[in-house]
Amino acid sequence: MPKEKILEYYLNEVPYGGTVYGIEVASKTYFNKKALDLSLAEAAYLAAIPQAPSTLSPYGKNRDKLEARKNLVLSRMLQLKFITKEEYDRAKSEVVAFSPRTATGITAPHFVFFIKDYLEEKYGPQIIEFGGLKVTTTLDAGLQAKAEEYVKEGALQNEKDWNGKNAGLVAIDPKTGQILTMVGSRDYFDKEIDGNFNIATANRQPGSSFKPFIYATAFNKGFTQDTVLFDLPTEFQTTCDPYGKALPGKNQADCYMPSNYDGKFRGPRKLRDALAQSINVPAVKLFYLSGLSDSLKTAEEMGISTLGDIGRYGLTLVIGGGEVSLLDMTSAYGVFANNGIRNPYTGILKVEDLKGRVLEEFRTSEREVLPKNTSLLISDILSDNNARIPTFGANSPLNIPGRTVAAKTGTTNSNKDAWTIGYTPTIVVGVWAGNNDNTPMKKGGAALAGPIWNKFMNEALSVLPNESFEQPDLAVDPNLKPILRGIWQGGETFSVDKISGKLATPLTPPESAEERAITNVHTILYWVDRDDITGPPPANPSSNPQFSHWEIPVQNWWARNGGNYSIITSSQKPSMIDDVHTSSSKPKVAILEPNDIASYSPEQKISLKISSSGLFPLQKIDIFINDVYMETVESPFYFSFTPSELANLKENNEIKIVSYDTAYNRGETTAKFEVR
Prior knowledge:
Layout: H1 3-13, H2 23-31, H3 40-48, H4 63-79, H5 85-93, H6 109-123, H7 125-130, E1 134-137, H8 141-162, E2 166-173, E3 178-183, E4 203-204, H9 211-221, E5 228-231, E6 267-270, H10 271-276, H11 280-290, H12 292-302, E7 324-325, H13 326-337, E8 341-342, E9 348-352, E10 358-361, E11 367-368, H14 372-382, H15 385-392, E12 406-411, E13 417-423, E14 428-434, H16 449-461, E15 493-497, E16 513-517, H17 547-561, E17 588-593, E18 599-600, E19 606-607, E20 609-613, E21 618-625, E22 628-634, E23 640-641, E24 652-661, E25 666-675
Helix pairs in contact: 3-4, 4-5, 8-16, 9-11, 9-12
């Protein structure tokens, strides 16, 4: 067969991406003209595509690779003297307009090509085009249709209201990592917004939605939800003075004094409130204290794959200075949703070849990357609607009535990106809104991405189990240094019994004890060594290059506001110890009925009778039968029960009374009783 005929067959059958086969179909699809009428540049594009039709498709996300391959074709033609230097220059610089993709009934196009790219990379283009593969994916068709509807509806509204033309949405099952929905734009076939570009896999700056990774790192190191950081104007660049002015010979543009979303500063703030309300200055401080390397490691282990070179980043990373994908962010938040267990995202359940042989099949590959209690604490904070009210209001798009849902927003500089990511134990949903070309919008965060997220989350939760988060263990080690426990007024504390006014002892009940700090207000760097968070305070705090930049604003704030707080000196520390709460002052209760003298029938109604004595009147009692809590009662302490109604009834039983007097002293007594 002559070479010309071989070439003819090849050109008539070679794949050009998707369902496009043959040069004539490709020419009409991509340029709406016959192959005979192609320009040199257009022909070079088509010559480039067959090497990797899915990867190099003009409708895919790799236009830069297609451009490079087209230029290679032209370069070889010049080398082989098929074209002149003038023709080469003209074709290389020609701006070619591809025809907009026409709707062909394809379902979930961004997801389809995401899967196709994965398959081509793993199995090669030949098997993809000619191997007859059967691919079963994780997509939920019903949720996908709703996601596409809400994204388009929301993006069109955003374009009208806020100049934000595009949006994307990803939903993942955190218990498996399976992708349930993927919407890469408001309309795959909308050329005006470059709709075929998959924003779900593109790298964008995440704004404050990156903060939970920093807080998780901090909680792992010993910070607590009650730890207080000062939200004050703070200069973080050490080549600038504490007031934000560059030092002599230094560049003013290097100075970094972040503000909050509303331009206000709030003074001392607990980490719980700072995260829930997305306050920037405490987050930047916490990032410095937690360490850049460790914080990035946390993010990477949770699923963020694009921040490898830590040398590129500074403290701005905590409020979105790096670039991440919506897919990675949604997957990483799945770790919080799944109690610290990571399931890598996947879109494939099974791949079979032409003969039905299974080439790959989904299997869980879960791994614990975060302590469970840290995940539960982050979820507890992000689902606390009351905690975020000062920033978002009571009825923001982050609130799903009747459901416990954790959520976080993000907005980048000049409102170029708006994010909302939220989750329950059964689904995690991420939404991005903005413009592909980085055109700034009029607003960000919850205003643009929030309504889309809210509509879809409501839709998804209507068909998913109503599963709530476990409660985290919020107990704090009393031996932890005061600043980490939320006491910012000073590092030396003492506990006072509020009833006697004397020093508390181990017998002083928590309800009656009050910890007080001898007033000595400083920045946290005065009390905490960032290399040993829970260890002793630094011997020389000023050796930290950030110390004066943090300390001066705190001292200035305290000079203005100290009069609003109680000042406690060392002379106010009591010298005598609590004599109200002693072993002899515990309430003494005797159980008169039931008792071990009588014998009771199962259907007999038994009324509790007690007698009591002590220094203070009895306030309440807790009643247990066979170690099962029954009820708490107050004076006149009436309680009765019928033995047959007890789930744990025995022949020989025990009733226990835990008693509390009005001074919070606690006593305990038991009695036996027999049921025939």
